[in-house]
Write a structure and sequence with these properties.
This protein is α+β, with helices and mostly antiparallel strands and about 290 residues long. It has 14 helices and 9 strands. The protein is about 45% helix and about 15% strand. It has a 4-stranded antiparallel beta sheet. The chain has a 3-stranded antiparallel beta sheet with strand order 6-3-7, sandwiched between helices.
C-alpha cells in the first residue's frame, strides 16, 4: 500500500514497482539489499523486524550488517500479544504463566522468551506456514493460544473476535500500554532482575520498527534523506490515510533516523548480553546449531 503513494512524494515522482521476495522471514531481501541491489536510492526492502536481530546476534544466514543499512522508516510501532481462545479457561496472566499452554507458532521468539526468562510452560506446535494457519488452528481447537500476534493484525483481520470476546488478550509486548489494551499486563511487569530488564529492553526496541523499510548501505546521504522525507510524507497523505482506515490498518510511522539509532544501540550492546538474547529467543538448541554453522 505504501508503494502506491511513496513515488508521489519523491523528486520526479518515480513509479514504484513492488516485487515479492519470499525467504527466511526477510533475510533473503535484506541480503539482497546488502549484496546485489543498486545503491543509488532506487531499491528499498521491507521485511520482518527480527531480521536485524539475526544480523546482530550472528546468524550466518544474515549476510548483511544491520547498522550499515540505510533505515528509511517503519509503518508502525507494534504491540505484540499473547492470546488464548475463550473456551480454554486460561484467561489471566497467572494461569498463562503457570499452566502448560499449547500454542500454534510460526514465530517462536516471544514464547521462548517467556519460557526461558520467566519459567512459563508454553508448548509450541511448529510447522505452520504462516499466521493465517495458526489462526485457523486456534479456531478449530487444535491449539489453545498464540504469541507474536500484533494487535494491529488482530484488529484488521479478526475484529469480530475482539468484539465477541472470542480471545483473551493475556500479555502485551510493548514499552508502553496500547491505548486499547489498558487492562492487559506488559511483559516488562514480569521482569525482576537487571538481566531480565536488559534483555527486554533489547527485545522491545524492535517493536518500534514493526514494519521496517531499508535501503542498501552506501546510498548517498541526500538520497537517504529524500527517501526518509517522502516516507514520512506518506503518513500524512489523506488518500493513504483513507485507504488505511478502510482496511483497518493501524498507522504510526517511525522515522528512519530513530530506527538507525536503535539498531546502532543494539549493535553495541555487550556481546554476552546479545548471546543471552539469542539463546532466549531462539532456544538453546537452535542457538547452538547456529554456532555449528
Amino acid at each position: 500500500m505504501i508503494g502506491q503513494f511513496l513515488g508521489n512524494h519523491l523528486p520526479g515522482k518515480p513509479s514504484i514497482v513492488v516485487a515479492n521476495v519470499p525467504g527466511a522471514n526477510g533475510l533473503v531481501v535484506a541480503n539482497q539489499l546488502a549484496k546485489s541491489l543498486p545503491k543509488d536510492g532506487t531499491a528499498l526492502g521491507t521485511f520482518d523486524r527480527n531480521a536485524a536481530l539475526h544480523s546482530i546476534w550472528g546468524n550466518p544466514a544474515a549476510r548483511f550488517v544491520a547498522a550499515d543499512l540505510a533505515w528509511i522508516g517503519s509503518a508502525n510501532v507494534d504491540t505484540s500479544t499473547c492470546v488464548t481462545w475463550h473456551t480454554t479457561g486460561i484467561n489471566t496472566l497467572e494461569k498463562f504463566m503457570t499452566r502448560e499452554v499449547v500454542l500454534g507458532s510460526s514465530a517462536v521468539y516471544h514464547a521462548n522468551l517467556l519460557n526461558a526468562l520467566f519459567g512459563a510452560k508454553l508448548k509450541q506446535v511448529l510447522g505452520y506456514q504462516g499466521g493465517n494457519d495458526v489462526v485457523l488452528a486456534l479456531e478449530r481447537g487444535e491449539v489453545q493460544g498464540r504469541c507474536n500476534w500484533s494487535w494491529s493484525s488482530i484488529v484488521a483481520t479478526r475484529p469480530a473476535w475482539v468484539r465477541d470476546k472470542k480471545i483473551n488478550i493475556i500479555l502485551q509486548f510493548a514499552e508502553e500500554k496500547h491505548p486499547e489494551l489498558q487492562d492487559v499486563p506488559l511483559v516488562g511487569d514480569l521482569a525482576k532482575t537487571p538481566e531480565q530488564k536488559q534483555i527486554l529492553d533489547l527485545v522491545l526496541t524492535s517493536q518500534t520498527m514493526a514494519r521496517p523499510f531499508a535501503a542498501p548501505p552506501d546510498v548517498p546521504q541526500e538520497r537517504v534523506a529524500a527517501l526518509r522525507e517522502a516516507f514520512m510524507a506518506v503518513s500524512k497523505d489523506p488518500d493513504f490515510l483513507a485507504m488505511a482506515q478502510a482496511q483497518q490498518l493501524e498507522i504510526s510511522f517511525v522515522d528512519g533516523a530513530r530506527i538507525q539509532d536503535s539498531i546502532r544501540r543494539i549493535s553495541h550492546a555487550p556481546k554476552g548480553l546479545v548471546r543471552t538474547l539469542r539463546d532466549v529467543m531462539l532456544g538453546p538448541e537452535a542457538s547452538a546449531e547456529m554456532d555449528r554453522k
